[in-house]
Amino acid sequence: MSAKAHKNKTDPVEPTRERILSAAESVFAQFGYDGATVRRISQAAGVPVALVNYHFGSKLGLYRAIFEKRTPTVIDKRVAGLQMARAEPDLDRRVDLVVRALIWPMFALRGDDPSADFGRIVTREMSDPQAEARGVFKEMFDPVADMLIAAIGECFPDWTKAEVHWAYHTMLGAMTIVLTDNGRIGRLSDGEVSSDRWEEAAVHVCSILSAGLKYRDRSQTRG
Amino acid sequence: MSAKAHKNKTDPVEPTRERILSAAESVFAQFGYDGATVRRISQAAGVPVALVNYHFGSKLGLYRAIFEKRTPTVIDKRVAGLQMARAEPDLDRRVDLVVRALIWPMFALRGDDPSADFGRIVTREMSDPQAEARGVFKEMFDPVADMLIAAIGECFPDWTKAEVHWAYHTMLGAMTIVLTDNGRIGRLSDGEVSSDRWEEAAVHVCSILSAGLKYRDRSQTRG
DNA sequence: AATAATCTTGAACGGTTGTTCAATCCCCAC
DNA sequence: GTGGGGATTGAACAACCGTTCAAGATTATT
After folding, report:
1. Which of A63, A157, A181, B107 is the most exposed place for a label (fewest CB within 10 A)?
2. Looking at the structure, do residues A109 and A207 belong to the same domain, yes or no?
3. Tens-digit pLDDT profile for residues A127-147
4. What's this model's pTM, rounded to 2 decimal places?
5. By the 8 A CB rule, do B113 and B120 touch?
């Protein structure tokens, strides 16, 4: 009787599975894995509770499905960014490209609004010890993290392993706080700046990180 | 019959309230606000469930009590660090001191082990939209954040407001990821570096951030 | 020693959690 | 049209949630 009544196989009007998936993305981002309830997700999607378990098996299955949907985009962009960086012979400029390869693919999630939630889910997962038990984050993001760390090492051949790794995590942390922000940045600046304008944020953060790597004082870390 | 039987008012062997408080700190850090259950906390403290609500009124009351116990130490150290920075006439050196004033008081929590958990609770609170509803973080940390942002502005009088604020949040993010880490940093570096050795981490992160602020390329952010 | 105040206890409260199940619906191939 | 298989539904499950309560144990005050 409704619009969805005459759906077909190739392009259903609003496939239920997809509706649940994007509702879950929003609810998980807002309430976290434990705070989010299957009932609230199903309600947001406008479907009965049982459908969630029918389509995704379990709450964890639904959670994993979100990552399986979103991560490839981010990973691919990062790999592409790193290839571009490797092609740059000038080491100074290459640093800028490596920083960009880390930051931009994640910030770009804020571009299309529904997937802005995924950024928050990822940062929540990073700060959750229980994430290890879920296993999702590790298996999806560790490989590309290794690539990024290697790329930093190639930019600074004389750095110690500790210097390279701490540089990566410093960058990662700076990126994280923009993704994770929920209004505090705007509040503290009286609305002057906002994490919603992600391109502006990226320019600021990248400029600081690039200079930080290039001009850091290594006298205490050279080892 | 146990040791706690002959407790007195001045120094009880292990005051129940305090036992609950530190058990809660550990459980909240491990499972987050929603994931932590009052029953698990009481079990970790070795007391019946009802005692939690008797001493703290509610789960939220217990949560707030943790912040009321720990924050003053951090805030006081930061304020002291900022006073020291203001006394430094050389602007380059003053930057280093401001960065230290932000980073060290939080990292120092890792010094005495039980309160290492508090660092994770704080970073969890930062990435949780529901934190606003609890109100704890905002009311306790925003004032000193304003002071830190002002101190950065004084180091770089010609910077725009956006440059100052993004600088602060970049620093904050870098700090956050060390506090929030639960083994990933060690895993990615094959155990070479660890967030447990917080002084080493602080030196690396501070050196990058200091250089980042001093030597950033402002051509795209000058506005 | 007797009374009052505080702390501790185990059991219970109503409500919510993730998940399951049998019954129903809809669409497509025959 | 007539089966049949996937999609959907509402109700039910046991387990657990935060909180409350009346009763008992302990400590403090008179």
Report:
1. A157
2. yes
3. 999 998 898 999 999 999 999
4. 0.92
5. no
